[in-house]
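Table S7 (text form). Paired inputs.
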Amino acid sequence: MSQSVPNIKLLIGGEFVESQTTEWRDIVNPATQEVLARVPLATADEVNAAVAAAKEAFKTWKKTPIGTRARIFLKYQQLIRENMKELAAILTAEQGKTLADAEGDIFRGLEVVEHAANIGTLQMGEYAENVAGGVDTYTVQQPLGVCAGITPFNFPAMIPLWMFPMAIATGNTFVLKPSEQDPMVTMRLVELALEAGIPKGVLNVVHGAASVVDAICDHPDIKAVSFVGSTKVGTHVYQRATLSGKRAQCMMGAKNHAIVLPDANKEQALNQLTGAAFGAAGQRCMALSVAVLVGEAQQWIPELVAKAKGLKVGPGKDNPDLGPVISCAALDRVKSLIARGVEEGAKLELDGRGVKVAGFESGNFVGPTIFSGVKPEMAIYHQEIFGPVLCLMAADTLDEAIAIINANPNGNGTAVFTQSGAAARKFQEEIDVGQVGINVPIPVPVPLFSFTGSRASKLGDLGPYGKQVVAFYTQTKTVTSRWFDDEASSGKVHTTISLR
């Protein structure tokens, strides 16, 4: 392990501190294998200290006027915009995605920050006058206390920005655990958040792996946990956190399908399918990793392969079409699943395993890969590959294609490509998936709405950002009041429940 690279610090009580752990991991540039920094696996005492700082800060932060909170996020969005290029460069170096895609990662998080600045109208209760004789009822949405977030490697800017801005804007304090694979851009965003005016202890950061995740799930002073990541870890987090009495929202794995009908605009459909399948090297929970070609659309495979062949693979800093996958282990897993697809009888239309990038021979590169003739029982279909691999399936009718998607346990996102309004309406009504695109390949909603993955892709009732996350991060308190004048105060005693 290199000793010449910087150590990533923890943020506890408003101070960036060196961890006292004996366990460290290297942060590696996936295009070059260069070690960029070391990240600590925080100790139990450090996690406890972060939670204690957040708990103490909550005493005053919860009483901070809502306008003051909103203005911090107005400043924060400005700072993110001013530092966009620097943030993207950091993200690309440690995660591998292209500079253009890195800016997109940051921008989609920035939109949530802008939404948080509108908290004054989002966190409003309800009021009803004279619900009974002289009785008024109203609700207020109060913060929960200390909340926590656990974020994945594939969107190290966007997903932390899904979490802590909305939690803090609603009056909570926060403990963030970024991915230990690429925490550098997250930490830079945290620095900018403090510069924007977030007070000491309101935002804290701990790094680590399984033991830190468990500590967050178990800590009695943490009231809610938000998670994005794999199905295996997300299921563990949800069960462990809820068992200890916490609220939890867990966005997990996916196998997203697109239906391509023969009446679709061919050029647009193939372009969008290619981009959605192979962008970010397939490392998106909303990637379109399966296309169901209906009827005559099955004849479009050669043109789809030609478009995929035309994509450029390289280091993210050069802004190719797709960069490397995150790690050597991820590369090995993707290659092994491609080999298994061949063994199980799928037709390998395009093999990306042999891609070479001049000057970056040690990078974790795999090119666009396409299988046709894929069946539901194959590993490449029922496992989330998380690489640039597109599975093609065939169907004779829209009904058959819908049945294929609804039989899959996941429900993160889906899309249909068609020029038929009737077909689109049938699809959106009958498909059992939380987020639906109609000629939109990656239907992640803007922050006015909430991320609404469903079925095996989500645990918890309320999704990230939008109106749902305001409900997640607040407790509704209902107040029923009656005020008497002096003459009415000497009235008859009532022993019934009615207020009339």
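Next pair, protein 2 of 2.
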Amino acid sequence: MSAVEFKGYGLTDPKKWSDLKVVEFKPKTFLEDDVELRITHCGVCGSDVHTLSQGWGETTNLPLIVGHEITGIVTRVGSNVTEFKPGDRVGVGAQIGSCMKCNRCKHDQENYCRDLIDTYNAVYPDGVAAQGGYSTAIRAHQQFVFAIPDALESRHAASMLCAGLTVFAPLKLNGAGPGKKVGIVGIGGLGHYGILFAKALGAEVYAFTHSPSKIEDAKKMGADHVIDTGASDFHEPLYGELDLIVTTLDNFSPDRPLQTYTSMLRVFGKLVNVGVPDADNLLPPMHAMSLCFNGAFFSGSHLGSKVDCNDMLKLAAEKGVKPWIQELPMSQAKTAVENVKKGNVRYRYVLSQDINPVI
């Protein structure tokens, strides 16, 4: 297979962040631990928008093909690959490589590897640029490829591979389950998954939203309680009630101090942040004393490991978890990313393949 047979919708002019053109690209050098797949679906993530628009302030490698919520069909495997074979349905998420040698990689924490490789806007060790899923195909080390259960449609599994995993991992690792009260702050692409997975894990779910129009949606997703954060004292009735809060906000409000949320935690409760806004939107200030009154823990979380991802997909298949998605052909990626930036999506876009594949 020649390099010119890989093509995707790429950014070529950073001044026109959403103007994506079909470009040919050189794929990852195929190695014996690699899996190659023909892409059928790719979710549209807020990370795609931040990267295309240079919102996080990082250098953009051009041309740039984003997309890291990928599902497709295996077309080729290396000689060291035993888990997958041609014809299998698989997925690839937001991470596509790591050193595989450090302590973190050896203990199922490869998502925290110092030398991790992002699925796009990154470079492989041999200098080849990593390109994402708004494309016809992708190659990945088998560690970063996930089997899609038969009970899950590819279009539903796609956005689980970043958005879903980003909230599932901290829910799982922090004990969300029967008998636990879990708060999900922000009901968007991430937050709606927070409700779905917290409920699937058996927790009592509290959804927090500043959008009254989303209250009924949150209930339909499975939230046991929905709190409108428009009221200044919304948190008062829940003082010390929650075991875990996961915040998914992409725009932190300076008039909502973090202690507004930590005050709702029980003693030794945990607040985990997974929302990552543009670089100029900082976390609201919080005095150190605010963490002392209930011994609260405040942390972040990054993606999830392969173990986490497989557990998530298994749970989704067993519990019938289905994201709320809007489907568009991949040729309409411009519309999708622009609407995500405006917040006009309920609750996740998924692009389906319509580039004429030549692979």
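Residues 7-162+304-352 form a domain with the Quinone Oxidoreductase; Chain A, domain 1 fold (CATH 3.90.180.10).
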